[in-house]
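Re: duplicated header lines in exported structure tokens

Our pipeline writes sequence and tokens for each protein into one text file. With two proteins the header for the second block appears twice in some exports. Here is an export where it did not happen, for reference. First protein block:
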Amino acid sequence: MKYYKRFEPVGKYWLEQLECYNEGPFHKKYTDKRGTQWSIGQVYEHLTHTAIEIQLEAIRQCIAKENGATKGKKTFMGWFTFLIGKYFPGRQKTASHHKINPSQRTSIKEMQNSSIKVLKMMSEYSSKVDKMSKEDLKYKIKHPKFGALNAREWYLLVIMHYQHHLKQKYKIDNMLMQR
């Protein structure tokens, strides 16, 4: 549970913060300096979708040794990201298979359920990732931006992704409080 202890505070924070919204503000779009429009609901949907469908699925595949390889390296961006332990500050370009502009249809209740699912999956995978041998960690799944990542690195990527979007959440929350 060593790795889950790193995720649990940020994962629970996102879940608990859902209590602060009602459906109107949850779907209200915030326009940043670049003209990008996302609601807080879209940020939540992006986080949970990316975690469940991409990052946690990659962890599952690494553990099961499916659809990956023991060869492959991180890209420079991947190496640098893991060196500093967080996403590079600022806006990140997302790979085409990611849900770039999440829908506006997701309710707060659906996001609570998705957030709980992420917390449960992260807890379940943590015990497996904690016990992986050096040999097990050689199996990797390619990330489009960061290169070949093992199960532990994919796990850490979930944590970094949730932390990365906190700044965006704070900006949207501040905008919502001003209205």
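Second protein block, exported in the same file:
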Amino acid sequence: MDSSRAIVEMLQEFQLYQAYDELEAQHQQKLIDLIKTSPDPLDADRFDPGHATGSVWIVDPVRRQVAMIFHRKLKRWLQPGGHAELDEPNLKVAALREAQEELGLQLDFEQASLFDIDVHLIPGGRYPEHWHFDVRYLCLCEVQPLTPESEDSPAQWFDLDDLAASEQDAGLTRMIKKTIAPPRNLTSNHEL
């Protein structure tokens, strides 16, 4: 697929998305602005202001558990995801590839749906400080053994009620809330 056509299709999808709350609506607008103004919003080497990334929120069909990986640099548990490769036409493809690499899960592209949009700051280090405009897709998956690509990046299923009771950032808290008790207006974006 032509990359400019893929960008236009993503932009249309993001514009139609219904944000859960005001913070997510702000993130949605920032993502839309990035896509409209950046020559290549998926380019991981663009640090001003940043670039779009894709991740996947993998939940069991009864909404009790979520699959996560331990992010070494950030020293916390997160949903799998990352940067798009040069040959990937969109963020959903990137997110599902990352889930396969990081957890060993083959997820259904057609079943994956836009679930959340989050913009967060990535601290400087090897690369300059920059923003990730993270597009998060929902996938339902039976609980099964996870096979992370590296022993340095452990993966496991977490009980959603336990996660809800622990301290998380605003983006994870929002996804947990959407999963445990999705509001009615979210059914146009995805089905839980």
